[in-house]
């Protein structure tokens, strides 16, 4: 299984109302220092079954989102994650 596949698998299991940091996802995917790669994978994700909006920065800020930061904030608020 490729790193990308492992990342997508980890992110697809983040429950509604919860978040993980890019670093946490990288660690769970088996490459603790590859958090920037996680961001790139999330940015290119087009699979609606992978809730990439649930991956945030380690400092608690939301980070980027392909559909815009405001949209990411809105979804996370609706889900009760923030």
What does this structure look like?
With 82 residues, the protein is mostly helical. It has one domain: Orthogonal Bundle (Arc Repressor Mutant, subunit A), CATH 1.10.10.10. Helix content is 46%, strand content 5%. The chain contains 4 helices and 2 strands. A two-stranded parallel sheet has the order 1-2. The termini are far apart. The mean pLDDT is 95.
Set down the secondary structure blueprint.
Elements: H1 3-12, E1 20-21, H2 22-28, H3 35-44, E2 55-56, H4 69-79
Parallel strand pairs: 1-2
Can you count the helices? Answer: 4
Query: Spans of 5+ residues with little confidence (pLDDT < 50)?
Result: none
Strand content: under 5%
CATH architecture name: Orthogonal Bundle
Q: Termini separation (Å)?
A: 32 Å
What number of structural domains do the residues give?
Answer: 1
* CATH level-four homologous superfamily name: Winged helix-like DNA-binding domain superfamily/Winged helix DNA-binding domain
- Mean model confidence by pLDDT: 95
Here the CATH topology equals Arc Repressor Mutant, subunit A
Summarize the main sheet: 2 strands, parallel
> SS-based structural class?
mainly alpha
| Dominant shape | globular
Summed up, what is this model?
The protein is mainly alpha-helical.
Core attributes:
2 strands, 4 helices, Arc Repressor Mutant, subunit A, 5% strand, mainly alpha, two-stranded parallel sheet, 82 residues
